[in-house]
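Margin note from the TA: students keep mixing up input and output lines. Inputs are the sequences; the output is the structure of the whole complex. Example:
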Amino acid sequence: DAKTTQPDSMESTEGETVHLPCSHATISGNEYIYWYRQVPLQGPEYVTHGLQQNTTNSMAFLAIASDRKSSTLILPHVSLRDAAVYHCILGDSGGSNAKLTFGKGTKLSVKS
Amino acid sequence: EAAVTQSPRNKVTVTGGNVTLSCRQTNSHNYMYWYRQDTGHGLRLIHYSYGAGNLQIGDVPDGYKATRTTQEDFFLLLELASPSQTSLYFCASSGDWVQDTQYFGPGTRLLVL
C-alpha cells in the first residue's frame, strides 16, 4: 500500500498558483519525498524531490513540513500543459531492496 | 536525458498465450523496473533489477517473470497470459540508487483476449 495520502482531484485556472498537498505521517528518517506527474498514455515524469529542506526547480517548489509528515507541491502560474496526475511518493531505504511505491495521485485539471 | 524505449507499443494475445515485453535503456543506469498501470490502482511494481542477472520481486509479481540480460535490456515474460493481465505496462530506469530519478518509457498496451 502507498504510504502517502493525496486528494483524488483538484481544479485550477490558468495563471493561478496551485498547492498540491500530500500527507505522509509514517515517513521514516531516511525516506525522500518524490513528486512525479503523468499525462494520459505517457509514462510518469520526474518533477522534484526533497528530504528535509524546501526545494525549488524550474517546474515547482516543494515545501516540506518541519516534522516531515506532510509536504506541498506548489506550481506557480499553471498552464493547460500542467494538467496531469501528480504522484507523491516516498523513497524506500537504499540498497538492493530499495523501491518507490506509487499511489493513485491527484488529478489536476486546469481550465482556461 | 535518459532514453528508455519499449517494444512492442501495442500487443494483443489470447488467454494462455506467451508474451515478451522488451525494455532498453541507453543511459548506463543500474536499476530497471517493470510497472503495470490499471484504472483505479495507479502504478504497481511488478519486478525490478539492479544489474545484469539480478532480479528483485515487486509488489504484484504473480504471473510474471522477468530477466535482465544486460545492463541495457530488461524483459517481462508472461508465459500463460490471462485477461487479468490486460494492462498498460511501463518500464523505467534509474541510476545507482533507487532514490535517483526514475526515467520512464512510453509504455506497452497489452490486451489479453
